[in-house]
Specification:
The complex is a heterodimer of chains A (241) and B (235). Chain A has 241 residues and is an all-alpha fold. Helix content of chain A is 73%, strand content 0%. In chain B, the strands form 2 sheets. In chain B, strands 6-7-8-3-9-10 form a 6-stranded mixed beta sheet, sandwiched between helices. Chain B has a 4-stranded antiparallel beta sheet with strand order 2-1-4-5, with helices on one face. The longest helix of chain B is centred in the middle third of the chain and has 14 residues. Classes of the chains: A mainly alpha (241), B alpha/beta (235).
Chain lengths: 241, 235
């Protein structure tokens, strides 16, 4: 058998099939490449922890001072109602929430892997969690200064805080520009309303209204949750639209 | 590697900013030209996945650009961007690296390399608020490169750069365009002439001309003016 015939025979028995689904193959390769990239990308927990150091220091400082001031007021005037100060604590969450927009970082952040939504949610979560933890510590600390059950002290602390957080959150969603001063004004206004309320409505802190406080707490918690969810959803079509 | 737009449209109330644009981008530098208000920024935002199209679609290798995976391979420089006032140049890069999901150790190394690449090594620890316009722009370019992007979209990247910085930027982009998709918009035609493999010309939200532009007797400026003036037909 000469070489030509041998080659022809070999071709016949071992012909190479025409490639099928070539594009799909290349796409899969690209996706496998992406999977390799993802393995070196930080996970959500690491991202959340990393965001802690990017929250403005003055927010931690002011929150700490405010909580200490509440404790000091309670110890100086047992039986007083320093609960109206907690809306001021909400200012930290609200200012952090709209910081990207205030400093025109939103567009850059939106194009990143942990996009604007993740960044805003992380800040909101971290400051909100720290505020809640701080308030719980304060409640446990000052309960002996009040003739109330621990639950009532908790409700009186949390309801004004949640009111300001909820109203501020709705305001920031509606505003298309810098909402910083507006949010701050809402916190101050909420604080003033809760400070004036016991003078207008003297039964406000009576035991008979505990159920109403609990209902307000639940309602505000749910409303705030819905508002935050909507806020995150609306970031699909960001402000520069 | 392919970034594909199919009948891409974006409408704001009664204004159509991008009107049924279809094209496909592959490796190389593509220049997007158009007058102010032509829809370049809207198109770039659509291609970056940060704006949702009114209709039509954008896909990268068959994958929707809204996917998280796309943002892994995307480098984006918006026309205008800010910074947190407490940030130094290095802090800014590390912050953006964290947002891009790059682990800290790798981010530190990348930030140093890129600060050097864009000529900000000595100024990296200075506050961004003390930077000149050109330095801020170079910082923006550096952040876009942090994740070694496969798709690099830059909106008016040469704005604010002095002539020397422009030359340096062109060299950088020409190098990057060899193995990735680079799309940059400008209304300064001379910025594109030496580096763009491909051109797209927009007017009033529509793609007037796209294709490879080969320097012949006509310079790019004259060619662009003839397209905008309607003397050249759409490709």
């Amino acid at each position: 058998m000469n070489n030509k015939r041998l080659i022809a025979q070999l071709k016949k028995v071992s012909s190479v099939p025409v490639p099928e689904r070539k594009e799909e193959f290349f796409r899969t390769l690209a996706q496998q490449g992406l999977l390799r990239r993802q393995s070196v990308v930080m996970n959500h927990g690491e991202f959340l922890a990393g965001q802690l150091c990017y929250i403005e220091k003055w927010i931690w400082l002011l929150s700490g001072l405010l909580l200490l001031f509440i404790v000091w007021l309670c110890s100086r005037n047992p039986g007083s109602h320093p609960f109206a100060l907690t809306p001021l604590l909400a200012a930290g969450v609200l200012l952090e929430t709209e910081r990207s927009r205030r400093f025109r970082m939103a567009e850059l952040e939106y194009a990143a892997r942990f996009s604007l939504r993740s960044i805003v949610f992380a800040r909101m979560f971290l400051v909100g969690l720290m505020d809640t933890a701080g308030l719980l510590i304060v409640v446990a600390w000052v309960r002996s200064y009040f003739p109330y059950h621990l639950l009532r002290v908790f409700l009186y602390m949390m309801v004004p805080y949640l009111t300001a957080s909820f109203l501020g959150s709705v305001y920031e969603r509606k505003m298309r520009t810098d909402a910083g001063f507006g949010s701050l004004a809402i916190c101050i206004l909420s604080s003033a309303v809760f400070a004036a309320a016991p003078f207008v409505f003297r039964q406000l802190y009576e035991e008979s209204l505990t159920a109403a406080w609990a209902a307000a707490f639940l309602l505000l918690t749910v409303s705030l949750g819905v508002s935050v969810r909507d806020h995150m959803h609306e970031m699909e079509e960001p402000v520069w639209n | 590697m392919e970034l594909k737009a199919d009948r891409l449209t974006k409408q704001y109330k009664n204004k159509i900013a991008v009107d049924r644009m279809s094209f496909s981008l592959t490796e190389g530098v593509t220049g997007l030209l158009g007058a102010n208000g032509a829809g370049k920024t809207t198109l770039m935002r659509l291609l970056s996945g940060i704006l949702l199209p009114t209709c039509g679609s954008v896909s990268w290798n068959g994958m929707d650009v809204g996917a998280e995976e796309y943002r892994d391979v995307l480098g984006y420089l918006p026309q205008h961007f800010g910074y947190y006032p407490e940030f130094s140049g290095r802090d800014f890069l590390l912050y953006m690296a964290a947002a891009k999901g790059i682990p800290k150790r790798e981010a530190v190394q990348k930030a140093e390399e890129l600060a050097e690449l864009v000529g900000l090594k000595d100024a990296a620890r200075k506050k961004v608020r003390t930077y000149s316009g050109g330095m801020k722009q170079r910082l923006g370019i550096a952040q876009a490169l942090l994740n070694d992007p496969q798709v690099l979209i830059m909106d008016e990247p040469t704005a604010g750069l002095d002539p020397q910085e422009r030359i340096r930027f062109r060299e950088l982009i020409a190098g990057l365009g060899q193995d990735r998709i680079v799309l940059l918009s400008t209304h300064i035609v001379s910025d594109l002439e030496p580096i763009a493999d491909r051109l797209m010309i927009m007017k009033e939200g529509r793609l007037l001309w796209q294709g490879r532009w080969a320097a012949g007797n006509e310079d790019l400026e004259s060619f662009y003016m003839s397209v905008i003036g309607g003397e050249q037909t759409t490709v």
